[in-house]
Structures are given as C-alpha cells and as structure tokens.
Design goal:
- This protein is an alpha/beta fold.
- Strands 2-3-1-4 form a 4-stranded mixed sheet, sandwiched between helices.
- It is globular and about 40 Å long.
- The chain starts with 29 loop residues before the first helix and ends with a helix.
C-alpha cells in the first residue's frame, strides 16, 4: 500500500497554483493568461474633465479624492491592467474626452468588440446635454458592434 508521503508531489498542492500543468487546469503558458486578449475590457468614456481618470485612481489605485484635483488631463488612451488576484483580472481603457472614436480612422470592432463593460462618466456640474448626446451615440455604436459580432 502506498502512502501519501511516498508520492513525489506530496505537500506541493498546499501552495496556490501548484497543481502540475499536465492536469489541464489552465493554459500551458502562463503568459497567455496575462495577455490582454483574455482579459475583459472596461472602457471609461465621457467628455473632457468629467472625472474618468479621477474615478479610476480613487477606486483602483487608492488615491485620495483630493489628490485627483492635481491629475494631468489624459491626452491618449491609457490601458491599465487590474490583477488583484487570479479571479479579478481585467483591463481599464481610459479614453481622453476629446477623442472622436466615431472618426472612420477608429475601428469600432476593435474598440467595442471585446468590451466587458462601458462606463460613461457625466459631470453633474457641467451642461449635461452634450454628454447625453455623446452617450447615446456611443451606446448605439457599441450595441451595433455587439449585434454584428
């Protein structure tokens, strides 16, 4: 009769992620798990100075809300990987407010195709009619891409 102590892998399963790779519990290459294609994508959209980056910094990077007053304006798409654990892994794409992603130069399929969530920030202290119009156009475009895809 064989005891557990005789097994060469005895005790190695007490460490998280220590199952042998040939058990078939995940991809052979762990880098594949970390690639952006496998992670859900959250898009942060809204008009300029609506608070998109501030919200992201407070929620995911433990920045004080008062500190966000000194953040620079976002002038390009910022991709941020959030990997708090093996279960919580996603990307946040923070878009500058001045980007017109309805321009034919932008590929809507790539932008909205792998989107897990779309967060559209509206500043309550600004004139919100322009923001509501852009929100409507954004949701309509995203919905069309999801229907076609």
């Amino acid at each position: 009769m064989t005891s557990f102590e005789d097994d060469e892998n005895f005790g190695s399963y007490s460490v998280v992620g220590s199952f042998p790779k040939d058990f078939g519990y995940g991809p052979e290459d762990q880098d594949e798990l970390a690639s952006s294609d496998n992670k859900p994508r959250i898009l942060l959209l809204g008009l300029r100075r609506s608070g998109k980056s501030s919200i992201q910094k407070v929620v995911f990077h433990k920045m004080s809300p008062n500190e966000t007053l000194f953040l620079e304006s976002t002038n390009k798409i910022v991709k941020d990987d959030i990997s708090n654990s093996s279960f919580v892994q996603f990307q946040i794409w923070d878009f500058p407010g001045q980007i017109d992603f309805f321009d034919p130069a932008f590929d809507s399929e790539v932008l909205f195709g792998h989107c897990g969530a779309l967060v559209f920030v509206i500043d309550a202290q600004d004139d919100y009619m322009e923001a509501l119009g852009k929100l409507h156009m954004t949701v309509t475009r995203a919905y069309k891409v999801c229907l076609d895809g």
